[in-house]
């Protein structure tokens, strides 16, 4: 496909978007930018100073967005393409899944999606073979793929690489390790402080969050955002919510018009986010939930 050819894509293949999406995007051009880095810069960075034979270590794809631009979370919502890496590692090296910190609500034109406007580090754990010889330098290579959107959208891909020495000992990288730790602190997590239930009726899904004794109570006027993990919920629809006298929070969600999985989910997979945090004495903002969906 050339730079003059435009299409709407998700996961690298054509998607039959709902008619209302196509209408809204009729003047919003999404073009293949190939190796261009419109709206962002990115680089592969290390958490530690060296590779120790047989010991796992972390590397990350550091994405810096220009003002007004964003990329996408592992589940973009109803539009967008998640950032990914296809690794080309030396023999004996194995990379774990790409880890995404908590998402933000972003706008692709006027459509709400799930991604990042802030600078973000997507990290992964790599396991090296135990028979590496100290003293050598190992090239870590891969191809990063993304979509970056502002007033227009630009899919892109480019090689990324990082050379790391092999040694018997390693230290935290003074420049990058603090960012790795900061991002991991922003990962969504589960909690026994809250109980979630979900009920589906037609296109609507009602999510109820019930606090336990160690939960940080919700207050009137707080905003809680639900992010879908599997695309079952429409990221662009409003999420009306109400706080009961018993402290329970109810969110009213809407199913997506297009769902790419072959099977209907049995559970509501998602993240609920609040600025104030979810547990007493804790500041983390994103609660991972997966309640079974009650269907008539």
Explain what you see.
By secondary structure, the protein is mostly beta strands. The chain folds into 2 domains: about 10-185, Immunoglobulin-like (Sandwich), CATH 2.60.40.10; about 195-295, Immunoglobulin-like (Sandwich), CATH 2.60.40. The protein has 2 helices and 20 strands. The strands form 6 sheets. The chain has a 5-stranded mixed sheet, with no helix packed on it. A 4-stranded antiparallel sheet has the order 3-4-10-7. It is globular.
Give me some keywords for this one.
296 residues, globular, disordered N terminus, Immunoglobulin-like, five-stranded mixed β-sheet, 38% strand, 20 strands
CATH level-1 class of the largest domain: Mainly Beta
CATH level-4 homologous superfamily of the largest domain: Immunoglobulins
Range of helix content: under 10%
Question: Sheet bearing the most strands, described?
Answer: 5 strands, mixed
Number of strands: 20
Helix count, DSSP H or I runs of 4 or more residues: 2
Widest sheet: strand ordering: 16-17-14-13-20
CATH topology of the largest domain: Immunoglobulin-like
Set out the fold topology.
Layout: E1 9-10, E2 13-14, H1 19-24, E3 40-46, E4 57-65, E5 71-72, E6 84-88, E7 94-95, E8 104-108, E9 111-116, E10 120-127, E11 137-149, E12 153-165, H2 177-184, E13 194-201, E14 204-211, E15 225-228, E16 241-243, E17 249-254, E18 270-273, E19 286-289, E20 293-294
Parallel strand pairs: 13-20
Antiparallel strand pairs: 1-2, 3-4, 4-10, 5-9, 6-11, 7-10, 8-9, 11-12, 13-14, 14-17, 15-18, 16-17, 18-19
